[in-house]
């Protein structure tokens, strides 16, 4: 199972010169908790940072910094990327080791292809567990039908 199979391909991006207000508005408009900061290189979006809703609260609001006084460049965190062909379970181990909840997924040239988040993985696991429960229920029902025949 590769990361590319399970990552979210709809990623909201901005440049490092984007205002904090614009980033917050992007998050609200698209109902997301992060915006990837990219740099255009060789006609590809190369991920260079990330701004999360938590960054806005902790770094701007809690510190009473005027959103007009800073840009994304001032608050973005660096990102660790993962190739889209990387193994999903190895990637989860790396995320746990690094203490990160979001990891941009890139192609062989470093261009942005998607993002893998803890939320995506939880949804995948929940779906898998639901399928297992359905399998067990079906098996029990099938066995009951077979045994109830005269």
UniProtKB/TrEMBL annotation:
The record's InterPro entries line, in alphabetical order, gives: CBS_dom (IPR000644), CBS_dom_sf (IPR046342), Diverse_CBS-Domain (IPR051257)
Q: Pfam families per the record?
A: CBS
Record's keyword terms, sorted: CBS domain
Q: Record's Gene3D superfamilies?
A: CBS-domain
Domain CBS: from-to ranges: 7-66, 75-132
Q: What is this protein called?
A: CBS domain-containing protein
